């Protein structure tokens, strides 16, 4: 049984190469912040947003820190796995080669990064979305010089693109009085400014060949433990949640608009706001026992900005919605990923699907 499956894959791959004359696999390129970072910030030595110490990564692989700001998998990990796509390595991974990129794609996500250049300045070093797109352009040049322009164009048009940023633009910019944006804009004009910037960025990605792209929306970020400690009651920050909702609504419209107007673009927006809100309100319904404080915490000192080796861990990590002050746990990420998959309705990608076909996004081409 196993043997015949292996044989079929070999045959299909063989024909794929024969038809194409090159090995264009379907891979992902990921742009994001700490919710999707898989190690870039570890190599930004001056960055104050790092997940390079225990107990980050405790439920992932060998249990050592790997750069993910989580105990386990990110939402993008889980969604990519379900689509049958390889997990792209971090852009700054020193062992990277062109062949690794052609086989696995690349992840530019960086903790502290935002849609806006000025977001997260407090972390000293991070890749903003513009910077990540610039790095992607460098990757394209590298791949073109390796496999030629035509094959490279095909490779980049067939790839899947994931973009997940925005919470830092609020939490580590607009809502912090130390940032200029906090007094330059109001809630509405700030969201407009984000959308204008995001639109320009998505258009650049389209001009660079991105055809199948999904943007993840924001969760109820007023309920992250860090936001709750801002009030003596420990309640969620309603204004912050409203900003997330308003971002999601505007981003959803933007993506619809771009998808309809950019040639061959299948650009989708998916958020899990409502489900996460329900998880936070009714944790036991989903098998959680805590939805308001971090699993990894430093005694009674709150907020402890990151999880550190001296922190203590909750007894059952799978029963906590939040891993640290900012980030959901692996179990919560699984719920978020399932919701986005349900909303966007994509299926597994056939790894040998070479066609850079437009719609339906994230579904195997019907031609194959
Ligand atoms: C943002 O940063 C990029 C470099 O990463 C730069 O090219 C661009 O002009 C900047 N945009 C603004 C609006 O400052
Ligand atoms: C859109 O797809 C068609 C068919 O694959 C192709 O001929 C055309 O050049 C594409 N346009 C753009 C802008 O990618
Ligand atoms: C967590 O579990 C304890 C002990 O079973 C229970 O008393 C408590 O109400 C639970 N908390 C939540 C939020 O489910």
Automatic annotation (TrEMBL):
GO terms for molecular function: hydrolase activity, acting on ester bonds. The lineage of its organism: Eukaryota, Viridiplantae, Streptophyta, Embryophyta, Tracheophyta. Belongs to the 'GDSL' lipolytic enzyme family. Residues 1-24 form the signal peptide. InterPro entries: GDSL (IPR001087), GDSL_Est/Lipase (IPR051058), SGNH_hydro_sf (IPR036514), SGNH_plant_lipase-like (IPR035669). Gene3D superfamilies: SGNH hydrolase. One of its GO terms (biological process) is lipid catabolic process. SUPFAM superfamilies: SGNH hydrolase. The keyword Zinc does not apply. It comes from Rhamnella rubrinervis. It comes from the Eukaryota. Keywords: Hydrolase, Lipid degradation, Lipid metabolism, Signal. Pfam families: Lipase_GDSL. This is GDSL esterase/lipase At1g74460. Transmembrane segments: none annotated.
């Amino acid at each position: 049984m196993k043997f015949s499956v292996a044989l079929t894959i070999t045959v299909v791959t063989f024909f794929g190469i024969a038809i194409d004359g090159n090995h264009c696999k379907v891979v992902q390129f990921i742009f994001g912040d700490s919710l999707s970072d898989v190690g870039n910030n570890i190599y930004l030595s001056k960055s104050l947003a790092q997940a390079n110490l225990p107990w980050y990564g405790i439920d992932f692989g060998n249990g050592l820190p790997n750069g993910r700001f989580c105990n386990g998998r990110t939402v993008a990990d889980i969604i990519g796995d379900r689509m049958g796509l390889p997990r792209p390595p971090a852009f700054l991974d020193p062992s990277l080669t062109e062949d690794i990129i052609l086989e696995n794609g690349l992840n530019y996500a960086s903790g502290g990064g935002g849609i806006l250049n000025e977001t997260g300045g407090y972390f000293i070093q991070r890749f903003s979305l513009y910077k990540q797109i610039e790095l992607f352009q460098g990757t394209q040049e590298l791949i073109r010089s390796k496999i030629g322009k035509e094959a490279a164009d095909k490779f980049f048009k067939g790839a899947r693109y994931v973009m997940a940023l925005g919470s830092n633009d609020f939490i580590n910019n607009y809502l912090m009085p130390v940032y200029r944006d906090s007094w330059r804009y109001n809630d509405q004009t700030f969201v407009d400014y984000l959308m204008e910037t995001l639109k320009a960025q998505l258009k650049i990605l389209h001009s660079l060949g991105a055809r199948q792209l999904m943007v993840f929306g924001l969760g109820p970020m007023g309920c992250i433990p860090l936001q709750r400690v801002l009030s003596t009651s420990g309640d969620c920050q309603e204004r912050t949640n409203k900003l997330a909702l308003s971002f999601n609504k505007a981003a959803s419209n933007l993506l619809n608009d771009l998808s309809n107007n950019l040639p061959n673009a299948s650009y989708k927006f998916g958020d899990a706001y409502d489900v996460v809100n329900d998880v936070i309100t009714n944790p036991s319904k989903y098998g959680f026992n805590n939805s308001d404080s971090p699993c990894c915490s430093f005694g009674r000192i709150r907020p402890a900005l990151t999880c550190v080796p001296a922190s203590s861990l909750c007894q059952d990590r799978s029963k906590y919605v939040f891993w640290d002050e900012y980030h959901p746990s692996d179990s919560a990420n699984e719920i978020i990923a399932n919701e986005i998959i349900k909303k966007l309705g994509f299926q597994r990608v056939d790894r040998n699907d070479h066609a850079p076909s437009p719609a339906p996004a994230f579904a195997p081409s019907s031609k194959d």
